[in-house]
Amino acid sequence: MSSIAYISDEKMIEYIRSSGSRNLNFWRLSMRNFDQFSEGSLLFFVDGRYMHSKTREKGIIGYGQAAAFTKMSVDKMWEKYETQNGYHNRDSFIEALQSTNKAETLPKTLQSIELNNIIFFKGPIYLSEVGDKMPKQLESYMYLDKDEQLTQAILDKALKIGIDSWYSSLNPELSLREIVEDKEEQEIRETLYRITHPWSTQQFKLIQVLKEFRHVNGIAYDKKDNQYTIYLPCTSARTQQYAIVGIIETIKKENKDKNLVFSIVLRESAKSSDLFSDYQVVHV
Known about the structure:
Blueprint: E1 4-7, H1 10-19, E2 24-28, E3 42-51, E4 58-72, H2 74-81, H3 90-101, E5 110-125, H4 127-130, E6 141-143, H5 150-161, H6 165-170, H7 176-194, H8 201-207, E7 214-216, E8 219-224, E9 227-233, H9 237-254, E10 260-266, E11 280-283
Parallel strand pairs: 1-3, 9-10, 10-11
Antiparallel strand pairs: 1-6, 2-5, 3-4, 4-5, 7-8, 8-9
Helix pairs in contact: 5-7
């Protein structure tokens, strides 16, 4: 998977928590993209105020799910997101930018990561409780699933701890079920990341037509209610049908407890295959 734990601005995170907002524009000075971090990935908030008494590692206090990535000017960012930038007014936002940039001059462009469905935990979670310790020298962020599958362990721990009481009171519709659903989605994404099928250039182009869905490793998926529809590109049923059915069986085997529907994506004029009779077929 591609989840990230990011040392977050304490004032920004506290403003979002105390206001009860489920959305945050997580801005960055760096223009460099994260590896394999895309729409649907989770970004966990690391808060330096919650230091472990023994290990001295910083605690993780919540997370949000990436929904969009853009780059824009400071003025455009405030105009578009306003208080969803994590500050109650523009002056506070500018002050935070200057502090992070360590200069009075403002950067010309910022990276924007829209986070939705934010959740704060009832207490901090420390990586040493679920796996490796967080590096003391960590200055910005770390990938959580490079050596261990820490995302699932953190979400399991969050289910035991519960949701922040104040945040929950401001979002009465929020429940632990949402964490369960996030965990399920990340499990599906992990399966898709592990599929190393060599899609052709034409298949990659074909699946990109489905811009409204989330994409992982040349495969698109959509979530509606509690059902996932997984889209696989096929530009030649004759030569690709067996490989695609094999991929479907792998996904099904690793996600037996989930409600999955599979859809084969074909070009408008392409012929289907009898092997695809058990699946939906979409022509684009």
